[in-house]
Amino acid sequence: MSSIASTLTSILSTENVVLSWENLTPTQQHNIQQGIDSKSHPSCIVYPHSQGELAALIAGANQNKWRVLVQGSGSKINWGGLAKNIDIVVSTERINQLIEHAVGDLTVTVEAGMKFAHLQDILAKSGQTLALDPAAPESATIGGIVATADTGSLRQRYGGVRDQLLGITFIRADGQIAKAGGRVVKNVAGYDLMKLFTGAYGTLGIISQVTFRVYPIPESSGTVILTGKPEAISQAVRTLQSSELTPTQADLLSTKLVSSLDLGTGIGLIARFRSVSESVQEQSKRLLIIGEKLGLHGVIYAENQEADLWQRLPEQIYFPVTESTITCKIGVLPTAAVEILNQIEVGLIHISSGLGLVRLEKSEQILPLRNLCQANSGFLSILSAPVEVKLKSDVWGYTGNSLEVMRGIKKQFDGNCILNPGRFVGGI
Question: Does the global pTM surpass 0.90?
Answer without folding.
Answer: yes
